[in-house]
Amino acid sequence: MDKVKLENIRQTQKAHPQHKTEPRDIFCRTCGQELVEEIVTEEYVCSGCRHLVGIDDDFCWFCGSKLEQTGRVEHYHRGKQLTDGEFVTKKAKVLNNERLSGKESPIPEPRFHTDR
Ligand SMILES: [Zn+2]
Ligand SMILES: [Zn+2]
Question: Which ligand is nearest to the CA of 16?
């Protein structure tokens, strides 16, 4: 099985407590500073069972498959899974659509098993 690298890209809003901002603002309405910050976390999953594995693991602890490092990367951007090539071009569009529609799509999360 492949060991797939996940890049989870999440956006957080910087707080400007003294200034007037709305939750979906990208720029501060008072000082013009950018309010959106992207946080990228990297995780690895087994491509067979989609459970999280360690970066150094050679076998999946959940299904026992041998894990091959292939360099495959999947991006998760605010709940949307994008392939490598789409990532750069779609990022701005996704952001825009979400601002316009005012709703967020359900997040396809990797499966976490904490009770191992
Ligand atoms: Zn401000
Ligand atoms: Zn597995």
Answer: 1
